[in-house]
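S.,

Sequence below, as promised.
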Amino acid sequence: MPHTETPGTEAAPHPRLRWWTELPLIVLVYACYSAGRLLVRGDVSDAVDHGLAILDIEKALHLNAEHPLNRLFTREPWIGVPADFWYASLHYVVTPAILIWLFRSRAVRYRAARTWLMTSTFIGLIGFTLLPTCPPRLLDAGHGFVDTMAQYSSYGWWGGEASAPRGLGGMTNQYAAMPSLHVGWALWCGVMLWRHGGTRTAKAAGVVYPLVTTIVVMGTANHYFLDAVAGAAVMAAGLLLTPFVLRAAARVRTRLPARFAPAAAGSANAAVPAPASARDGAGSVNVSGGCQTSAGERFPRQREQRFGAGAEPDPAPSDAGDETPAPAR
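The prediction came back faster than expected:
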């Protein structure tokens, strides 16, 4: 039995994804994120107080895994150096690579995945604004942390101030530690690999990548464990908000063309001149408004206007009345 749809109930099709529209959108979101981190610089003393408070909470809950990991990374360069490369580069490589992979092979799910990532990123920016936090590596040395990025800076492009290229550390906000979007983005990548990878290797990478990233951010003294937890919570909040954001975007796409269409149609109709048959000799518009009669239709007293009195011709098929028979030929 053929499938039929009730008119007016068809779902509005999504506009086709184009890379030249997606790429500027992603670049714009990341630029806003980076600019927000740079411009929102809380008071240093407040950031230090927040960092120490987080450390005290972790000690009270026996969650202080940062110290043993940081001592291991500091003592063993074969672990510390790759960890610094992991921290400084992979979130710039893996996250865009998975976005491109989804765009090319999983376009049906790409829109929701991209919206989830962007929504969570903006939530993280709110966290940086409300809770500037000093990372462990910037605390006083008496707290027992070593900045491995500074210790191993000769091995990479980063300097002692941050994971940014050497000399550009002043252009980053080093107190944007809560939440850890390194962990948040890695978790997003892991979910995408697990759900859409299709192979055991991809699913294994989906588990390993966020776990190793969590260990790296703590071992390099860039984040506390609770920063990582907050990063996962931000991604969960973004996932819950994604359907609402998608519906809002769909309404905007639907209403904008409808809002401007009547104005465009009105201007188009105003530009079309009236037909010549609708105007009389003086150039004024005829009251008929350009209406035409159907074939064979006559106006009242049409015959009296065409022929004078007593000068009616013999009836012909084209002029005879409805009940007058046509003459035989």
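The longest helix spans residues 225-271.

Coffee later?
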